Amino acid sequence: MDTTTAIRCYLIFTGTGPILVLSTYPELTDPRLIAKLEYKGITRFIAYEVSLAAVQERYGEAFAGVERDLGAAQDIRVLDFNGHQIMANFSLAELGEPIKVGG
User: Fold this and answer.
1) How many domains are contained in the chain?
2) Domain region containing 36
């Protein structure tokens, strides 16, 4: 499988701040992905899908390392959990429609 086309990037705003993740699940609302986030204590969030090309450009080798670790399996990996850095790398204007999860 070509993981480049299967990988999706999400900027997720959680109760403790934003995280940037890579996922090979078909969509953010996939129940298996939601279960993994819930296991980590993330039960409510607002997220945005972020351009894969933009993430590759802005995170370079860090992106490549996480991409290799993710492999072809359906899973999720955190690329960045530094809210200040994430917000410096992405403007709100480049984000699309929000995905809301949890009551």
Assistant:
1) 1
2) 3-101
